[in-house]
Amino acid sequence: QVQLAESGGGLVQAGESLRLSCVASGRDVGSYAIAWFRQAPGKEREFVTAITTYNGATYYADSLNGRFTLSSDNAKNTVYLQMNSLKPEDTAVYYCARLLNPISSIIRNSALYDVWGQGTQVTVAS
Known about the structure:
This protein is mostly beta strands. Helices cover 0% and strands 51% of the residues. The strands form 2 sheets. Strands 2, 4, 5, 6, 9, 10 and 11 form a 7-stranded mixed sheet that branches. It has a 4-stranded antiparallel sheet with strand order 1-3-8-7, with no helix packed on it. Strand 4 (32-39) and strand 5 (46-52) form a beta hairpin.
């Protein structure tokens, strides 16, 4: 069973940057996607970005306006989320999650992800 572990969250000022990491451990089951979702207090969990393992395709929420970049290091089983120009509205708990056999039409649907990390808190002060 694959396990996911996030790290890299913290408290930053508006305009600063953070890099989150998601490390996958356990048996590789083939084609899947790793996504980041976030959940702010009192709000629903929302899709942020995802990457597919078989071809490296990336997907982003339209609201990010290019501020976030997703990358992966397959040798380290790690996905990185580089977040630049952070805003107070980016404050949330950030989760990474796995989706088996991903296709673009379902990749933003959190209900279809079967493995989740514990989350890492990102707080952006104004």
